[in-house]
Amino acid sequence: MRQLVRNILLVEPKYKSKYPPLGLMKISTYHKLKGDRVVFVKGCIPEMQVQSWDRIYISSLFTYYWKETLQTIYYYQASVPSPADIYVGGVMATLLYDDLKSATGATVIPGLLDKPGILDAGDKINIDALTPDYSILNNIGVNFYYKLQDCYIGYATRGCPRRCPFCAVYRIEPEFVHYLPLKRQVQLIQELYGEKRDLILLDNNVLASERFSEIIGDIKSLGFEQGATYSYINKSGRTTIVKRHVDFNQGLDLRLLSEDKVALLSEIAISPLRLAFDDLSYKEMYENKVRLIAKYGINNLSNYVLYNYRDHPDELYERLKININLNEELGLQIFSFPMRYIDLYSKDRLTSTNGNVGKYWNKKYLRAIRCILNRTRGLVGTRRGYFEAAFGHNLDEYHKILLMPEAYILNRVQHEKDGSTELWWSQVCSLSGWERDIFMDIICNHRIYTVNYSELPRKVKDTLSHYLEHNNRKKNKHNDGRLLQSSLSSHFLK
Ligand code: SF4
Fold first, then answer.
1. Which entry of 196, 221, 431, 482 is 20 to 30 Å from 405 by CA?
2. Of all atoms in ligand 1, which is nearest to the CA of residue 204?
3. Is the CB–ligand 1 distance for residue 164 below 6 Å?
4. Helices (DSSP H) in 7-56: which residue ranges?
5. Which residues, other chains included, contact 474 with Cβ-Cβ below 8 Å and sequence gap of 6+?
6. What is the atom index within ligand 1 of the atom nearest the CA of 160?
7. Which atom belonging to ligand 1 lies closest to the Cα atom of 251?
8. Ligand 1 atom 3 nearest Cα
């Protein structure tokens, strides 16, 4: 007997994402195979909330999107027969399984949908192996466009054999799968949803695959060899030819990048080649591998630079500078992406939350880095002039910038011209040892709005006025809290 058609709603909470929600797209394919009606929306949509759904799937991403994800779950709870008819999967669902279940009563699905019968008991379909349903992206209930929705997106491997403590991959994909049939994935997307220009691979550690050369062979045979092009008809009706790109978006493991593998990578249209530079102790290896990459003619690189973990702030500066030096030495374009470490289980990104501030970092320095990166959307350009203007010509200037009032960092030229930066710095430099300790304690712990100003020495007060006058213009609360004069474990101005 044929099963009744079910009404299925797929929801991605309204956080920013450049990737379309692959998990939901595969669930869409699954339910359509079952003959169900499927609708996809982004966020909380009143027209969807008022309808009755048999089941609602909500995806989750990082744990720090806890609030947005819970809001979405609560929003749709009255649209299903019971709270357990809301299914939540994804990264946060895996890492905060118990919390999510007890806070919402939803059915929480940890890990991958790579075994049959997870969504419907007795079913034989491996949902993770299904072709993502790209068609749902066209009926999004809000004006939302994913930057990468017009690409082939897939996996050539799954998981990672390593266990880096700052990474969630092994908790979500504990088994390393050396090979997945990439050709089949891409060909099916092409047949069903048309040809696409670029190939985005979400592999966590493709270089660990024993079948890496076979994967490169697959990529080449799909039309993504070095120099490959793609043609399309543009808006004015002309045929336009552009270069194709292959992007191992999660980055390649430096430690496994042998000369043989670089040679293989140079045979495909890789751009950019992404590397992680997580720790300054890899300096020599990193520089040597980048030289190897340059030797094989790959010029466009992207570098994930983890900070606020076990590193010292100086190590962020050093790693960024290494990329500038390599760009000049080798004629490369290495763009750096500093990535702030957030505790894996943190429910927000706040620096007041335990675990979100690294041992050698503090709230002020993290806010300063955010201000520096504010204008460039998180990217550090390839030129020395840009880097030195943003981060300083040397470590002394970098320390000064980290300490600078945020308004002075954001509007550097204006405040240098009107003399306020110079005045601020002369006041900082004129502080005596114990005054400097007080000042640093307030600044580094971001206590400028809560400290009791009436108890502060005059010179400290004057110096702090730069932060008050220009920093968000929040009202100084001048509370009666006792001024802590604790010595700082780590700062630059002792
Ligand atoms: S190598 Fe990369 S993917 Fe693997 S555990 Fe480390 S950070 Fe995660």
1. 482
2. 3
3. yes
4. 22-33, 46-49
5. 449
6. 4
7. 2
8. 204
Task: State in Å: Cα 177 to ligand 1 middle.
Answer: 14
Nearest to 49 by CA among 10, 76, 26, 25: 76
Q: Is 162 in the pocket of ligand 1 (CB under 6 A)?
A: yes
Contact (Cβ atoms closer than 8 angstroms) between residue 93 and residue 87: no
CA–CA distance, 322 with 21 (Å, rounded to integer): 35
> Considering Cα of 340, then 345, then 350, then 351, what sign does the dihedral take?
negative
CB 12 within 8 A of CB 48: no
Q: Can you tell me the distance from the alpha carbon of 372 to that of 380, in angstroms, rounded to the nearest whole number?
A: 9
Cβ(169) – ligand 1 distance below 6 Å = yes
Distance of CA 247 to the CA centre of its chain: 15
Out of 91, 158, 162, 306, mutate this one to test ligand 1's pocket (max ligand atoms within 8 Å of CB): namely 162
CA–CA gap between residue 312 and residue 322 (Å, rounded):
16
Q: How far is Cα 320 from Cα 336, in angstroms, rounded to an integer?
A: 7
Helix (H) or strand (E) holding 91: helix 91-95
Q: Could you report the per-residue pLDDT of 195-246, keeping only the tens digit for each?
A: 999 999 999 999 999 999 999 999 999 999 999 999 988 888 999 999 999 9
In ligand 1, the atom with minimum distance to the C-alpha of 170 is 5
Distance (Å, whole) CA 112 – CA 22: 11
Indicate which residue's Cα is closest to atom 6 of ligand 1. 164
Give 435-480 pLDDT, tens digit per residue: 999 999 999 999 999 999 999 999 999 999 999 865 444 444 333 3
pTM of the predicted protein model: 0.90
CA 342 – CA 271 distance, rounded (Å): 28
pLDDT digits (tens, 9 = 90+) for 138-190: 875 555 778 787 899 999 999 999 999 999 999 999 999 999 999 999 999 99
